[in-house]
Specification:
By secondary structure, the chain is α/β, with parallel strands linked by helices. The protein has helices at about 50-60, 75-90, 100-110, 130-135, 160-165, 175-185, 200-215, 215-225, 230-245, 260-265, 320-330, 330-340, 360-370, 380, 385-400, 405-420; strands at about 40-45, 70-75, 95-100, 140, 140-145, 145-150, 155-160, 190, 270-275, 285-290, 300-305, 305-310, 345-350, 375. The protein has two domains: about 40-150 and about 305-350, Periplasmic binding protein-like II (D-Maltodextrin-Binding Protein, domain 2), CATH 3.40.190; about 155-305 and about 375-420, Periplasmic binding protein-like II (D-Maltodextrin-Binding Protein, domain 2). The strands form four sheets. The chain has a six-stranded mixed beta sheet.
Length: about 425
């Protein structure tokens, strides 16, 4: 999600002035102009609040001299809950951070988002982006989103810990279960997972197990409502999920995703399936990762690659100004500056960014995604925030009572039908 990253997705804030950022708390409105004329000041509303990325975006926004920008930073879960209110208000923020894919398309279909198609044509800042990124940013033939960075998911671990325990990354599911058993024999929880205040983390394992068991096409179709969550194929996914429950640190049910990093860092847990935004909470050269192991060799390997960026409100009082600001943020120079200053492991969407300057970990992430047969986003990004809530309820119940899986899947499907309206 939740995204991630960069707290699954978190960044930003700053200090005011021409071309700089001003902190206005959780203000949900755009820069007001009581005359109704185009506002001379733009409001950028952001859910990105981790310290390093926050400072990085502040620096990037300071370099924008065309129009004064007020930068508001909102805690991620508050932002998520209030986003429909922001977009539907009479004076909404001009530009907002969020995610590509299903969620952006849903807001666009309601008429909330500004058409950004001209940024994708001719010499526009997005003209050189990949067809996959363009498709991800399109609704009804119009581009309504501008992606500026993306990231990968994987099983992260400490190299020194694996060396100390005499283990190595697994390539197959059987090898992975053996790896977990070996780490457990050392008196260490093989897996950490923070599903207390960040329940969406449990969807990471669901997504990946579904991708490995049933493939990317079935996964996307399931999240779009074309299959049922009580389908036997989903039951098979949960059978595999159940195999790893004994290896998960039980304290994780009270952890946030950030809290769950602590036992990994202290070598009290072996691995963490999470997005590359973990590097904001666990920097250093000792961190490494491997892809979720193969379960069925006949299923093409797919990876989660959540994509972040910006959209603009259709009600912006300065539509051209909003487009100009997004175009500036999408430029390769700004992408590279943001990623480097934020100390994140996010990947740029512009092919003009020099990725050879990034860390070996990022190079490995780029290579893994490049070798993947298909890319998906994350549960809520491929479905909706509303369906994510239903999934959170189902999966956390499963973590606590896996023997009730049949009822849990039936309830999950019933909740999905209410959300999807079919």
């Amino acid at each position: 999600m939740i995204s991630a990253p960069v707290s699954r997705r978190g960044f930003l804030a700053g200090l005011g002035g021409i071309g700089a950022a001003g902190i206005l708390g959780a203000c949900a409105t755009g820069s007001d102009d009581s005359s109704g004329a185009a506002s001379a000041t733009l409001t950028l509303q952001s859910s990105l609040s981790d310290p390093d990325p926050k400072a990085a975006l502040t620096e990037v926004v300071k370099g924008y001299a065309k129009t004064p920008v007020t930068l508001n930073t909102i805690a991620i879960e508050t932002f998520r809950a209030q986003l429909p209110t922001y977009l539907n208000s009479g004076n909404p923020p001009d530009v907002l951070t969020w995610y590509a894919g299903s969620v952006a398309r849903d807001y666009a279909s309601k008429g909330f988002l500004l058409d950004l198609s001209d940024l994708w044509t001719g010499n526009g800042p997005c003209a050189g982006f990949s067809p996959a990124l363009k498709e991800l940013s399109t609704n009804d033939g119009k581009q309504i989103f501008v992606p500026t960075n993306w990231y990968w998911w994987g099983l992260f671990y400490k190299k020194s810990a694996f060396q100390e325990w005499g283990v190595r990354p697994a390539e197959t599911w059987d090898e992975f279960i053996t790896l977990c058993k070996t780490i457990k024999s050392k008196g260490v929880h093989p897996l950490t997972m923070g599903t207390g205040s960040t329940q969406w983390v449990a969807s990471g394992w669901f997504d990946y197990l579904n991708l490995r068991v049933n493939g990317a096409d079935f996964h996307r179709e399931l999240l779009a409502g074309r299959h049922s969550f009580d389908d036997p194929k989903v039951k098979t996914v949960m059978d595999h999920y159940r195999q790893i429950l004994e290896f998960i640190d039980p304290k994780g049910r009270s952890y946030s995703w950030q809290d769950a990093v602590t036992p990994l860092n202290a070598k009290k847990a072996g691995m963490y399936l999470i997005g590359a935004f973990i590097t904001t909470a666990m920097p250093g050269d000792d961190l490494d990762f491997f892809r979720v192991p193969v379960i069925d060799k006949n299923v093409p390997l797919a990876e989660e690659a959540p994509t972040d960026g910006y959209f603009a409100s259709a009600k912006s009082r300065n539509a051209q100004g909003a487009k100009d600001l997004i175009g500036y943020l999408a430029a390769p120079e700004q992408q590279q500056k943001f990623i480097e200053l934020s100390k994140s492991s996010n990947l740029p969407t512009s092919s003009k960014v020099d990725t050879t300057r990034f860390s070996p970990l990022v190079q490995k992430g780029i290579k893994m995604l490049g070798e993947s047969a298909s890319l998906t986003q994350f549960f809520n990004r491929d479905s909706s925030d509303q369906l994510q809530t239903v999934a959170d309820t189902a999966l956390t119940k499963f973590l606590d009572a896996p023997e009730d899986v049949d009822k849990i899947l039936a309830d999950w499907q019933a909740g999905a039908k209410k959300v999807l309206g079919r």
